């Protein structure tokens, strides 16, 4: 019963509400089409599908943090800390 609730939750959260729902359904369709008769591959594919939400949230968090750190390193938003155009920093993000 727990497995069905978990799958239903995944379908609602990832397959209906998320901004990547198209990729979710494409992956699930491909998984079922290619591996419907291989329980081990189905289990692994469903495990990846269920954990995708965690990895997407984490990767967005890391990307945002890197953007902030990069902006600080380049002095974006702080004109006094920015070098003049003749001495422009070679750093890019």
Could you explain how this protein is built, in words?
The protein contains three helices and no strands. With 93 residues, it is mostly helical. It has one domain. The chain is elongated, with a radius of gyration of 21 Å. The N and C termini lie far apart (48 Å).
What class would the helix/strand composition place it in? mainly alpha
User: Which spans of ≥5 residues are poorly predicted at pLDDT below 50?
Assistant: none
Mean pLDDT: 84
Radius of gyration: 21 Å
Distance between the termini: 48 Å
| Strand count | 0
Defining key terms:
mainly alpha, single chain, 93 residues, 3 helices
Task: Please describe the topology of this protein.
Elements: H1 2-17, H2 21-35, H3 39-74
Helix pairs in contact: 1-2, 2-3
Summarize the structure.
The protein has 93 residues and is mainly α.
């Amino acid at each position: 019963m727990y497995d069905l609730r978990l799958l239903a939750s995944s379908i609602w959260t990832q397959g209906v509400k998320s901004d990547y729902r198209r990729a979710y359904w494409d992956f699930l369709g491909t998984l079922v089409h290619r591996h419907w008769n291989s329980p081990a591959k189905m289990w692994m594919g469903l495990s990846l599908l269920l954990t995708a939400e965690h990895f997407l949230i984490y990767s967005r968090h890391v990307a945002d943090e890197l953007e902030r750190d990069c902006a600080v390193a380049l002095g974006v938003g702080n004109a006094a800390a920015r070098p003049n155009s003749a001495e422009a920093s070679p750093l890019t993000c």
